[in-house]
């Protein structure tokens, strides 16, 4: 596999750089965590130093393959430019529709950011024709979006196959770190949060085979609580998910992996309540884990050699419901175990807790891709890069 340190840049002038700037924002489009942006800085500097003209591609949110105002990068590109300390020229969706990449190709140099790549219908279809539009007259494709490496999308898969390609500096660090993590022996605890079981079903089915304990928190836990006949009222749950929940619990029992669920929760009123005392006579929503659940996690960590944390344990965007995630982030930062943190929203928890990656064994910017890589799955983007 090529990398940026062994490339001859003599004939490389025009570069496509795929990044992941899918960052958390507030209601005013103010970026809440810049980690994913700052992690791309080293690669951008390397290309810029070698006098490359750079076209940056990224997704932002989940638009339905068409322009949606709230998912436009025009809302945040100035903040991105300031964070990278670079003059970045923006190519809007409308301009791309009218003139394709003329603004980029007509320029002598510079750094350009195209509007949300997921506005384009061919992106999710991994469309070769769409990919050709981007790679034509380009000399190099660089992937610095490891967090999207599990997607068979045009900008992470097909484009890499069209022209000379290589991983970005942080992308390579992610691969090397995951390879080293796989070699760690010992008793493993996985703390899995977030909102959807369906997006992590395969990861959970794999983790029960390698973990001694798994704590499930966040809105994901609501599905498991409901399956076990606890009342969750109006809390966020997925429909038609019982079969998957049952499969996870069955595989966990078969592999002697203990599944832990919240014993107490914080509801939308701010009150802490035991799950056994929840009832549907009142309307409520579960937004965080309670103090007993926090202590349960802390107790399990004491007997764990390796700790994997992926996904927040509550609605961390609201400070009223970030305590569970923040307390665990702080506790794990002092752990003697090898603590591995992954997932964009988990990074936000670290920021709220005023902690950074130096406090842990490894911090990944990826969520789903990170989990799939730990499962030994061949990620489409990694495979595409290795073809070269």
Largest sheet: 6 strands, parallel
Low-pLDDT stretches are none
Number of helices: 17
Tally of structural domains: 2
Oligomer designation: single chain
Based on CA atoms alone, the radius of gyration comes out at: 22 Å
Per CATH, the superfamily of the largest domain is Phosphoglycerate kinase, N-terminal domain
Commentary on this structure:
Helix content is 36%, strand content 16%. The protein is an alpha/beta fold. The chain folds into two domains: 14-173 and 379-386, Phosphoglycerate kinase, N-terminal domain (Rossmann fold, 3-Layer(aba) Sandwich); 184-355, Rossmann fold. The strands form three sheets. Strands 3-4-2-1-5-6 form a six-stranded parallel beta sheet, sandwiched between helices. It starts with 13 loop residues before the first strand and ends with a helix. The model has no long low-confidence stretch (mean pLDDT 93).
Short description:
With about 400 residues, the protein is α/β, with parallel strands linked by helices. The chain is built from 17 helices and 15 strands.
Identify the notable features of this structure and list them briefly.
388 residues, 6-stranded parallel β-sheet, 16% strand, 36% helix, globular, Rossmann fold, alpha/beta, 2 domains
Write the layout of secondary structure elements.
Blueprint: E1 14-19, H1 35-38, H2 41-49, E2 53-57, H3 77-84, E3 88-91, H4 93-99, H5 102-106, E4 111-114, H6 121-124, H7 128-135, E5 140-144, H8 158-162, E6 165-167, H9 169-182, E7 188-192, H10 201-210, E8 213-216, H11 220-227, H12 242-254, E9 258-260, E10 264-267, E11 272-274, E12 286-289, H13 291-301, E13 306-310, H14 323-333, E14 338-342, H15 344-352, E15 362-364, H16 368-374, H17 380-386
Parallel strand pairs: 1-2, 1-5, 2-4, 3-4, 5-6, 7-8, 7-13, 8-9, 13-14, 14-15
Antiparallel strand pairs: 10-11, 10-12
